[in-house]
Amino acid sequence: MQNKPTLNTATIPPAVMNYLNQDPLLHITMIENLRWGWAEVLAHSPHGVAARLVQIPEPVLLVAADSPKTALELTTGIAEADVVMTCHANTAPPLAKRYGLKEIGTCYSLARFTTQPLPVPDIGAEFRVLDVSHLDAVVARYGNLHADHVRHRLAGGHILGAFLQGELAGFIGEHEEHTLGMLEVLPEYRRRHVGAALVAEKINSQLAAGRVPMGHVYVDNQVSLGMQRKLGFEVSEDVVCWIS
What we know:
There is one protein chain. The protein is of the alpha+beta class. The protein contains eight helices and eleven strands. It has two domains: 144 residues; 96 residues, Aminopeptidase (3-Layer(aba) Sandwich), CATH 3.40.630.30. It is 29% helix and 29% strand. Helix 5 packs across helix 6. The radius of gyration is 18 Å and the shape is globular.
């Protein structure tokens, strides 16, 4: 395992960090969102933390708790959540029931703690941050997300495009919790290392900004997990669950 860097967590209450530092790899999504001001703490105790993403269209909760009982205690009084990310699989069912949510996806938490940049394949591409003028092109090629979600990510400058001879060849982005994702290469540009170049360029830009690149991969996606390990990502032993 890589040595963890010393992160500037001055914006996070010490009691909250004391809990999250018990397993920084599992809790990296909460740590990064809190330290960059993308989330706010709603409740905490020695046994867990509840937070909410800010400046996004829908209410998204982030929960880390030692037990289902603690998860419910922390979210008492939080009336609304369209999506919940919770650490530890046993906390997912009671939170799903509380918020009337049906789908639970189970993932490993990934983080790249090393600050060594990745080599970017020389494919002759120009990399540019996409804006809302690219909404239709992104939605047409990445149908997993609602157009409002894509528009919000574009408006925030969170999607990077690769252009070959002036034409969009592919893109990669960050989800609302700032994990890596949304990787798509247009069919006519596949098998030309566009995806590898996009991943490396995006990770390097995050490293240059002082961030920890992070992601979530479904527990049954062994191919993706192997690829992420080759890129220097560590994989959590425990899981996070996305409830929607």
